[in-house]
Amino acid sequence: MNSNTKYSGLYRTAKQLLRHRKTVVSSVEVSIAAVALFLAFQLRFDFNIPESYWPHLTIALLIGLPIKLFFSLAFGVHRHSFRYVCVQDFARLMMVQLCATGTGSLILAWIVTGFPRSVYFLHFLLSLVLTAGTRAGAMFIGEFMLRQRIGAKHRNAVIYGAGAAGVALLRELRNNPSLLYKVKGFIDDQRGGRGYLIHGIRLLGRGEDLPAIAKLHDIEVALIAIPSAKKGQVLEILDHCCKAGLQSLTIPGLGEIMEGRGLARQLRDVAVEDLLGRSAVRLDQDRIRTKHKGRTILVTGAAGSIGSELCRQVALFEPATIVGYDMSESALFEIEQEMAGSFPKLQFCPEIGSIQNQQRLAEVFELYRPTIVYHAAAYKHVPMMEAHVFEAVENNVFGTLNVAIAAGRSRVEDFVMISSDKAVRPTNVMGTTKRIAEMVIRSMKLGSTKFVSVRFGNVLGSNGSVVPIFKRQIASGGPVLVTHPEMRRFFMTIPEASQLVLQSCTMGQGGEIFVLDMGEAVKIVDLARNLILLSGLRPDEDIKVEFSGVRPGEKLYEEVSTLDENVLPTYHDKIKIFSGGAQSWIVMEKQLNQLQHLCAARKFDELILTLKEIVPEYNPSSEVLRRAIQPKEPDFSMAEIQAGMIQ
What we know:
Rossmann fold; disordered N terminus; 23 helices; 7-stranded mixed beta sheet; alpha/beta; 15% strand
């Protein structure tokens, strides 16, 4: 018979017995009490019980066993799991033994004369040891049978980090054999003393020793259990794992742990987000819930990276309705399906339309009458907008204006526009149009609507961002193309950015530009090399990093504010307000009319000059300037064309 089949049969038999748990456990408890009492008498009389004491043993059994059964049922011993035994279970078993032995001793002392008193103590100790031993034995046998029944090869692993998280992970892996990891030891850079035992598992050494340790113990995977690790520490750990040829998995940070169901089941590959070293976002959830609960929220660009995450984050605060407005049919369908699965009680209404279509916007606002609008729709790709200047202005400037006017006419309470750090001293059309959009929002005064902007840098993993591009290049074998060795950008995660946008909505009084704390700028070449490292490969050896040159409109360093903007704190340490003199609506309206006329007439050179007049700090790229000054093709009338003058 196959061993797996044999153990599977034993496992099924054990499960059938546990269907009658109360009877089985009670029988075991009574049997243990009987054996412990018999052994106590044997020990008391050196395994030669005098005939005159056999009646004492019989009376003790008749009285003690019902008492033991009563207290076992009273303390609910039969409800304890045999697979997962903890200190609290042993404490409860001790209470059962104390109560049973104490009660039995009082009754026996009252009705029996000459009962050996040392038997009471011996019986207590033996009952406790046998009961605890039975529990521990059942737990080990259960684990063994489960491992045999699963029949899968467990992977040899080390736990990197011998702190509280590492010990908790070890405990959970022991209690869940189906997770298929066999822990061979701990690795810890902070603790000395190789050979030190932690819950019976040896501390094998430091991270620098990992290649030798992996070879000696046939290790396949490193389980990183340092949820508070900083960026530099994570990189160092990954480097050690890479040199040892190990797969690296990590447990999540505190925020993810609180939402999950245990450490071991949340083990995942180390992600690029872990390398940012950003602390978890602290939100004033009461304010956000008060703002959003039971309200109708409209999100433009709802199918995009930021817009879709805004929908997910808003849904957590129990709005009545979320209206997702986007012109991408397929992507909007995807977020609709996701929201239906994740938030079945929420009414999510997908609406297809462009922010450039004033009539469509008016229809949607009239139908839903939203309370809050999050305006995330925009053209954001810098090089592409350098080649499509008219489209960038029409969408980012006039599209924003259209949504703002529709919001004001519908008496929306709060309007929040998503801006970009590229709006600061812009060197590209995309950043310039976002800066003008900020100016439009600051100058808007329509009814009681509060108009604010939220400015932040790049988000990891967004559509068209460098991370997905780098991953595709790594998957194809390289090279990974970086524009310039000194190119730096601010990064934050999409959930973090979206959460802080919701928090900003609770602060706005109208006219503010909120700027999110982006931390330190990250060198793009370092990000590329770290992604290669995360893939289990060696940068510049397995995958080459090459430089392709700065693209049109890009600058080496991004900024989050200009020198003439005053920085004001808020009650949230990751959100600041940049204030300054706002453009009057009269001046703004005149400039917008001029922009609109130039877009309609397709006058490229005059449009660039007007953008420069509105945003004096705008420094057009050489490509845009070249297009603005190049000789123009002669205009021909339709009559001349029809006359055949043009061949």
